[in-house]
């Protein structure tokens, strides 16, 4: 079984624990890294500050309402970066507001998922996300290793 690398950007420790427990309950081989705010998420993705050895995630699970830099700003920066934009970003938010959903897709979210309120629903959601992103969907080569980007003749 291949281990998948997931970056969870979540400021609520209870939701982070629930996500971790859901992956474990589904017996998914996931290397879950958790950051607490948007600034730390971008430091992680750009391998800055205390994250110089961070692995490039196969998937980012992004909450919208974050301290210091909100999820919308993080999403916009990820999707405007030549280096990061191919990493799938799933917005995982408690908001079901149409404007949040629309704006997330406008900014380049690959998916918008409303957070389930109970563990059983959370577990089912995590299993579905894993099944889709790492079994059904085909990801571009090089998502895990950003060095290939610099080797492309057009810098793509």
Characterization of this structure:
With 156 residues, the chain is α/β, with parallel strands linked by helices. The chain has a single domain (4-137), classed as Response regulator (Rossmann fold). 40% of the residues lie in helices and 16% in strands. The chain contains six helices and five strands. It has a five-stranded parallel sheet, with helices on both faces. The chain is globular, with a radius of gyration of 15 Å. Mean pLDDT is 85; it is low at 144-156.
How do you describe this structure in short?
The chain has 156 residues and is of the alpha/beta class. It is 40% helix and 16% strand.
Number of helices, where a helix is a run of at least 4 consecutive DSSP H or I residues: 6
- Strand elements, count: 5
Assembly state (oligomeric): single chain
Under the CATH scheme, which class? Alpha Beta
CATH topology: Rossmann fold
In the residues, how many domains can be counted?
1
The side-by-side strand order for the widest beta sheet comes to 2-1-3-4-5
Order of helices and strands: EHEHEHEHEHH
Major sheet description? 5 strands, parallel
Low-confidence parts: 144-156
Distance between the termini: 30 Å
Q: Helical amount among residues, as a percent range? A: 40-55%
Gross morphology is globular
The CATH superfamily is identified as Response regulator
Which second-level CATH architecture applies? 3-Layer(aba) Sandwich
